[in-house]
Amino acid sequence: MKQHTFHFPFFILFLMLFLISCNEKTSHSSYLKYEDLSKKAEEFEKKYRFDSAYFYYNQAKSHIENHHEQWAYTLLKTATIQNYIGDHYGCEETITEALAHYQGSTYLPYFYNLLAISYHKQNSLEESLNYYKKASDLATNQLEKAIIQNNTGLIYLEEKQYQKAIQTLAPLLTDDALSKNPYELARVLDNLGYTQFLLQKQEASENLHLAWKLRDSLNDNIGLIASNMHLSEYYQHKNDLLAKEYAQKAYQSSQKANSPDDKLEALKWLTEFGDSNDSKHFYQEYIALNDSIIKARNIAKNQFAKIKYDSKKATQEVIKYKNQKSLLLALIGLIVVIAILLYKLYQIKTNENFNNPLISPKPEFPNAFMTNWRMMCLMQ
């Protein structure tokens, strides 16, 4: 009798490859969902629809393991949105979550830089400087370091440490990384020019106007708000007409940039100019906008809190599903292995019985009967 051999190691290898393949397909599917949701979030972010952007970033996060680079990216984006709408506590909470799990290094300078900006907006300037230093120490390229140095100079400016601010900002004008990035160069020129203006230095006018021209050529409405405000202040006691003109330009730029905070600043500054009717009009608009911003931000904070809660529940469901699937695959694998072992034991036992001389196979009845019958016929 021919014995059929079972290739046990080959089958186990096949089973392992099958299980790995299933996990890889699941991972690939999750990554595709992450990419799709991230793209949607980015599209809404470009349109300043931050509630929708925040929602989709949180959805995207649930499809990526909590230590991967993509996961860190979504948290950085959600924290940036929170910081922009004034939810500084939420921003800090999101970054803290990221730092607790993130095992990479790519986004660490950005997290620390954003924390510094958040503390800056809350007037915790010393705390802000600490995080700018951490961000700078971890920055991997010269442009990142230059941006952080500019931000640090702005802190010194607001702390009225003007000489220290100039010492921090002035060297950046000859930085090669900034010469290739006009947006950031304009920021440095404007901050430096404004600091020089406060110290009544002659170079102030040139740097302030250079920054304005750069931003105007780039159609940088966010940057033009600051430039127009600074030039309005520069001309306040030199030329009332120019001061008012730049204040109005700052207001127009804030409308184009959809920046409510900057619009508030422009309105506040416009109340300083013009006759009493104009000032009254701008002040009333300022009060109405300020109330509207506070209300909108409170609504947004509540929405974000709900989105985050729902996203956390969704993430838990995804993890639960993955765990159940892994358990099921492991159980199937265990059953198959046990079945193989039982079959192997059966084969071994069968071979032992077949090769044992004490156990002789019985003759098949029909053949034995026919043989005996023939013999009887011959004897007669």
UniProtKB/TrEMBL annotation:
SMART domains: TPR. It comes from the Bacteria. InterPro entries: TPR-like_helical_dom_sf, TPR_rpt. Keywords: Membrane, TPR repeat, Transmembrane, Transmembrane helix. The chain crosses the membrane at residues 6-23, 327-346. The keyword Protein biosynthesis does not apply. TPR repeats lie at residues 109-142. This is Tetratricopeptide repeat protein. It comes from Flavobacterium azooxidireducens. The lineage of its organism: Bacteria, Pseudomonadati, Bacteroidota, Flavobacteriia, Flavobacteriales.
